[in-house]
Design brief:
single chain; about 350 residues; alpha/beta; six-stranded parallel beta sheet
Length: about 350
């Protein structure tokens, strides 16, 4: 894409629940200190995008005006400020392909200084009001958010590094050990990333539950030992039969955080660990007190990720994690409304949708 003399670019903005429109916006200004101008090459649709798309809000953050969605993305550096260094403190230059961490912490507040930039008090995030995301051809980003992509990884791979990073952070919180029994509720992209990661960690058996049979079939291909269709069977009963009622050492809730939260508590063993990754539509979840209290569970909520892109890139480059197997559909940027509608309806065997951009 030649940006010389260009004054407008294609962008896709959300105006209200399910009201996604293809627009034309002014191209961004020149990159400032520590910034790069990116030509976006691929964006994948996340479940959190779907919350905002369907409800006009996510959690307690409502849409207050037209917003460019998208936070799982890759791009090409078009321009770089002289002091533009990537997430590993290496200089960035035009033409470099990069995967992008959508979080923009301040790196100066108490939580950032303590090594928790995902909990930054001043955190900005692509595609979350009021910050526009990646469903546009060009965008400015802090260079520190960018990580060069190896030639072996495609643009779509680069976009899927973000959900892989979410999975890595969740597994870090779960402290999975070799031989642990693991249960995963939700075989969407995050659940499937967690599945692959815990198998790499030596967990066995690993149970994964979902309501879509095509996702469970993919989970089997990716190494799940037990798959449960929640419309036909109860994951608590299935795991109980396979563990002599012991339960799972670690449970990951990676669905919609509705009744799955209660199921997670029931699936965990005495003294087990439960990691809640899913985002509830109604901004609340019901935690059944008795099983959580009597079992003495450790319950953690995953907040995005920390500095995991270098690990994610290495795993993908070595093909220890299969990213492309999750991509079920590819749409061009100007058909994003159709892509979101398909994803929100969970139609057509959808697992992960990637939006590709004109060059």
């Amino acid at each position: 894409m030649n940006t010389s003399g260009q004054t407008e670019m294609l962008a896709v903005r959300l105006y209200g629940p399910r009201d996604l429109r293809v627009d034309r916006l002014p191209v961004p200004a020149q990159p400032g200190a520590g910034e790069v101008l990116l030509q976006v090459t691929a964006t994948s649709i996340c479940g959190s995008d779907l919350h905002t798309y369907r409800d006009g809000r996510i959690g307690d953050t409502p849409l207050q005006g037209p917003l460019v969605l998208g936070h799982e993305f890759a791009g090409i550096v078009v321009q770089a400020a002289p002091d533009a260094h990537d997430g590993d403190d290496r200089p960035l230059s035009p033409g470099l392909r990069v995967a992008v961490d959508p979080a923009m912490p301040c790196f100066r507040c108490e939580l950032c200084e303590k090594g928790h930039p995902n909990l930054c008090r001043r955190l900005h995030f692509c595609g979350l009001w009021p910050d526009d995301g990646s469903l546009r051809q060009l965008m400015l980003m802090p260079a520190r958010s960018c990580f060069p992509l190896p030639e072996a990884l495609s643009d779509a791979d680069g976009a899927l590094l973000e959900p892989l990073g979410i999975g890595l952070h969740a597994v870090d919180l779960g402290r999975v050990k070799v031989g642990d029994t693991v249960a995963i509720l939700g075989a969407g992209p995050i659940g499937l990333m967690i599945l692959q990661l815990v198998k790499l960690s030596g967990a066995c058996p690993v149970l994964i539950a979902d309501r879509f049979d095509w996702r469970l079939q993919l989970a089997k291909q990716l190494g799940a030992d037990l798959t449960v269709d929640v419309a036909r069977d109860d994951p608590i009963s299935v795991l109980g039969r396979h563990t002599q009622a012991r339960g799972a050492d670690v449970v990951f809730e990676a669905a919609w955080a509705d009744q799955s939260v209660g199921q997670a508590m029931e699936l965990a063993r005495l003294g087990g660990r439960v990691i809640l990754v899913g985002i509830p539509s109604e901004d609340e979840f019901i935690l059944p007190a008795s099983p959580a209290r009597r079992k003495g569970l450790t319950i953690k909520l995953a907040r995005r990720m920390k500095h995991v892109y270098p690990r994610a890139i290495a795993l993908a480059q070595r093909q220890q994690i299969k990213l492309r197997d999750l991509v079920s559909h590819v749409f061009p940027l100007d058909r994003s409304p159709e892509a979101f509608d398909l994803n929100a309806r969970y139609a057509g065997g959808v697992v992960k949708i990637v939006i590709e951009y004109p060059r």
